[in-house]
Here is the input.
Amino acid sequence: MEFNRHISRRLHEEHDATLALWGRVEASLAAGKHDALLLKSAAAALAHELDHHFRFEERELFPRLAAAGEGDICELLQEEHEVIREAGKQFIALVREDSAKDRIRILGLELAERLVAHVQKEEMSLLPALDDLVDEAADDELSAAYAS
Amino acid sequence: MFGNVSRSRLLPMSLPFRYFGAAVAFHAIAWGLLLSAWKDLPGFEAGLGPVFAALHAVTLGVLAMAAVGATLQLLPVATRQPVRALWAVKLVWWLLAPGALVFVTGAARYEPQVMGAGAMAVVLALSLYAVLLMKNLLGARGMKVVVAHGWAAFACLVALAGTGLALVGRYEHGWALDHALVRNAHLILASYGFMGLLSLGLSTFLLPMLAVAPPPPSLATRTTLVAALVAITLGVLGLALPAALLGLAAAALHIVFMERSLRARLRQPLGQSFLLIRVSWACLVASLVLAALMALDLAPPRAALLFGLLLVPGWLLTFLLGVLQRIVPFLASVHASSSTRGTPVISALTPARVLAAHRWLHLIALGSLLGAVLAAQRWLALLGAAAGLAGAVAFAAFFAFVLMKVHHGIQPPHQPAPA
Here is the structure.
């Protein structure tokens, strides 16, 4: 999908990176492997995503989109954030301890599926709506806020 | 059973799912009708009766029904325009579902007047749907390629309604018209036109979304659309050979670019439903090759029937079933989400064994029916119809499973089940 705004393109690039990384995690876990390096990399990326990407969407984007009549989509995405955040925190803690490999496997597979489905929804609904909503000034403002 | 929650461009769950539910029921009716008349299949040429009724249970009851439900849900996502008249979406169903049932019943019982009443309801339903489609496309902002396919499908739908009414008028009132030409135009407009163009257009964003892959290049999809439209026009005018060859080129372009897109996917597992989608593409190509051979008088015996099998159950039905295997759990997971119980994972709404059983039964049915017609073997028709009915029951079990899961609520795996 092609986006016209800097902020949409930036978020789209991050989505691609998330999908690529978690695609590898899913393939590895599904094959019964426990690749500690890959899992640590996924946990670190997830921690950044929960702290930065999710928080930015919740603080800056969802309120704007809700005000523009896209509140129901934002509500759905917010619900997904909460579930991913909860599962993600458990996953990050377990990977840091490098214990409970079975639990890491279950959580990792669940997170891979949830992140893919979440990204699919954001790519189909959030980013196109954002592209429509923001003008050039707002785009610059949001891009600066996201980079900070 | 269904909450009446609207999520902007997402319709309330009851709306698309009532169309999918009706399609599931008509799917079983179609195979049941064919099973009741399995001896007639290898020798079927034309005319009313259970085989004709089974064909229209698929075209009106399954394909048109699911296409209306799916497009009313998916097009607003592509066009960034919500469907505002929810009453009209409900009314379309209340006209289309009973109308198709009456039409199929009339056809099975050799009663053209009953068929006529059903056809009127179906035409009314599709006319109302056409208005909804047009209004949505008029305000479209995103995905220009999908919108262009939508307009092309809309034009075919309008012409399809006209040819359909003309055919019913001939049966019911003895209208004098070039029956073969109108019948062929009706068939082309319905299959390659309305259904085919919708499936091509929606494929360009839906399949990449399901596969987590980049969409095909816009220039390629536009070229495909133009080639397909010219081919359809030539076919409607009775120029079979150029229509088939150009249609073949359009189909090849579509498949090549979709496969390229799928190869660039970011998530390795593609999902078994893509087996059905790929089989459907093979049937599309085979139907056009056969059409070209028929135009050259090089086709095997019973080529018209073989062509119909490749076109309707082979391409369109197989494609639809493959897509429904994926979008039914996806849409259900969206609607099942709530702040109190979280969002269910799609795999929790995907009964893998039931879907595998459906896939293989459907493919056995399709292969057996093609074999029955090619080799003029009635027992293969019996096997095919029985496998098709068993597959339809498996598909209905899958649909019921999803509804039950949504109704009872699903706890995310990492969260404890409620006490």
